[in-house]
């Protein structure tokens, strides 16, 4: 007994000794994490994208006024951050706009170029878990330390020059991305447009050798217009003189505008068709991913041919082992992703337009067609969208439970994904709940209001269904 007691005392002593010797390291880690958390807090206190877009939607201005408020102002911010026009023009960029599939197309393109041996930068939005996911080097989110380091450098410079007019959230991150890609000396940066194209802050670039336009649809109508012609005009705003532009088959009205704008901008525009087959570990992936991958491979090939003098055919490039590895190892969490956790099968896809939700529902039905489990829906939608047109795709999925939740992971969440005025978002979720009940009634479907629930956070919904055999679709934005 005494022996065991001494052993336990010795183990405790060794543990204390080890912890004492590593205090300095632990303190360094804590310090770095605190700097990161402080950076995220400061970032979240900038004007949000939603507030900025709502403000802009009420402003009807001329082209020159809009350009001055967006692109010209962005140039001033960049100079304040130490990024001159000459420096920015030294950055090799592949620029991608579109309504649907921008993120996956960029991710496919980045992965392809990385597996061909190039140091890549990748700027995308939104993030899934942490804001640093938006800025990646060689496929990996920048570290907490680097994020904090670069954030505070840029923040303090901008605060000095623009104390009462700091950039909004997305614009600030775009400045950060440009600065980081230049400092980290990437070979090529793949940039996903935020909203539209013509007046998007990523469009401050003047020299872009290769651009892509993914599938077009109706979205952000308060900013971009209510017709495909208007939306296509904005998306084509990323066309640059003498650059190579690629798109996929588009609705007739949209294609006419893209062709017209390519002529105006002296840009060569080519329409690609799917030629890449995507298989992800034998799982069923919607055909649209093959189309996005085909556009991505074309963009990567065009950049290598234009900038690096690649001298093989597109087919040879697509069949190259590095290209195939890049596509096979492509990772885009939150898009047609399946996670098995606590006896629940979670099917996740960030569909946020009627068209993308239709594809999402087809994928979910295929994935669960042999399942005997009950179905659950977890849904939210941000921004100013016609949610009824999106939800109508989901009402016939026979969900036994439906949760409407804001984009908050848990009740103690104070860092990333911070949402101000939570009551506003809960009210929105209650509106979606009422809309869901209405749609069920209109489609002569059974309505059990006790199974249609608004929750405070995602965790609350997850806790409600954990350890029960459900197939749960998590979708929206």
Automatic annotation (TrEMBL):
Q: Which SUPFAM superfamilies match?
A: MurD-like peptide ligases, catalytic domain, MurD-like peptide ligases, peptide-binding domain
Give this protein's Gene Ontology molecular function annotations: ATP binding; metal ion binding; tetrahydrofolylpolyglutamate synthase activity
Provide the catalytic activity annotation.
Answer: (6S)-5,6,7,8-tetrahydrofolyl-(gamma-L-Glu)(n) + L-glutamate + ATP = (6S)-5,6,7,8-tetrahydrofolyl-(gamma-L-Glu)(n+1) + ADP + phosphate + H(+)
Q: What is the protein name stated in its UniProt record?
A: tetrahydrofolate synthase
Localization of this protein: Cytoplasm; Mitochondrion inner membrane; Mitochondrion matrix
Q: Carries keyword Metal-binding?
A: yes
Pathway participation: Cofactor biosynthesis; tetrahydrofolylpolyglutamate biosynthesis
State the family it belongs to.
Belongs to the folylpolyglutamate synthase family.
Q: What is its EC number?
A: 6.3.2.17
Q: Where does ATP bind?
A: 335, 349
InterPro entries, A to Z:
Folylpolyglutamate_synth (IPR001645), Folylpolyglutamate_synth_CS (IPR018109), Folylpolyglutamate_synth_euk (IPR023600), Mur-like_cat_sf (IPR036565), Mur_ligase_C_dom_sf (IPR036615)
Keyword Ligase in record: yes
**Can you supply one Gene Ontology CC term for this chain's record?**
mitochondrial matrix
């Amino acid at each position: 007994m005494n022996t065991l007691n001494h052993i336990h005392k010795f183990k405790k002593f060794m543990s204390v000794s080890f912890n004492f010797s590593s205090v300095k390291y632990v303190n360094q880690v804590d310090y770095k994490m605190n700097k990161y958390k402080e950076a995220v807090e400061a970032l979240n206190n900038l004007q949000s994208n939603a507030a900025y877009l709502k403000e802009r939607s009420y402003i009807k201005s001329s082209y020159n006024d809009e350009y001055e408020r967006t692109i010209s102002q962005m140039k001033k911010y960049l100079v304040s951050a130490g990024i001159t026009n000459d420096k920015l023009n030294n950055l090799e960029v592949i620029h991608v706009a579109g309504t649907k599939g921008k993120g996956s197309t960029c991710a496919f393109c980045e992965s392809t170029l990385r597996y061909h041996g190039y140091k890549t930068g990748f700027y995308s939005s939104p993030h899934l878990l942490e804001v640093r996911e938006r800025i990646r080097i060689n496929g990996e989110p920048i570290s907490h330390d680097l994020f904090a380091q670069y954030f505070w450098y840029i923040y303090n410079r901008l605060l000095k020059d623009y104390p009462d007019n700091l950039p909004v959230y997305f614009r600030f991150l775009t400045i950060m991305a440009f600065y980081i890609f230049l400092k980290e000396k990437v070979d090529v940066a793949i940039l996903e447009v935020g909203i539209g194209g013509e007046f998007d802050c990523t469009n401050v670039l003047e020299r872009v050798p290769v651009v892509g336009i993914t599938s077009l649809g109706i979205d952000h109508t308060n900013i971009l217009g209510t017709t495909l012609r208007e939306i296509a005009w904005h998306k084509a705003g990323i066309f640059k003189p003498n650059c190579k532009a690629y798109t996929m088959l588009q609705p007739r009205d949209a294609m006419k505008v893209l062709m017209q704008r390519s002529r105006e901008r002296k840009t060569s525009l080519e329409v690609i068709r799917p030629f890449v087959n995507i298989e992800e570990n034998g799982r069923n992936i919607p055909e649209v991913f093959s189309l996005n991958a085909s556009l991505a491979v074309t963009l990567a090939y065009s950049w290598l041919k234009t900038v690096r003098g690649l001298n093989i055919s597109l087919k040879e490039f697509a069949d190259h082992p590095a290209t195939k590895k890049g596509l096979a190892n492509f990772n885009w969490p939150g898009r047609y992703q399946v996670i098995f956790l606590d006896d629940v099968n979670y099917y996740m896809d960030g569909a946020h337009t009627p068209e993308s939700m239709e594809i999402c529902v087809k994928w979910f039905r295929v994935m669960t067609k042999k399942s005997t489990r009950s179905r659950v829906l977890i849904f939210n939608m941000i921004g100013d969208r016609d949610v009824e047109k999106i939800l109508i795709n989901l009402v016939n999925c026979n969900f036994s439970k439906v949760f409407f939740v804001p984009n908050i992971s848990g009740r103690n969440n104070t860092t990333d994904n911070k949402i101000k005025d939570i009551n506003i978002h809960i009210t929105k979720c209650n509106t979606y709940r009422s809309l869901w009940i209405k749609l069920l009634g209109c489609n002569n479907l059974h309505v059990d209001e006790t199974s249609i629930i608004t929750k405070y956070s995602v965790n609350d919904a997850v806790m409600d269904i954990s350890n029960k055999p459900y197939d749960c679709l998590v979708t929206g934005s």
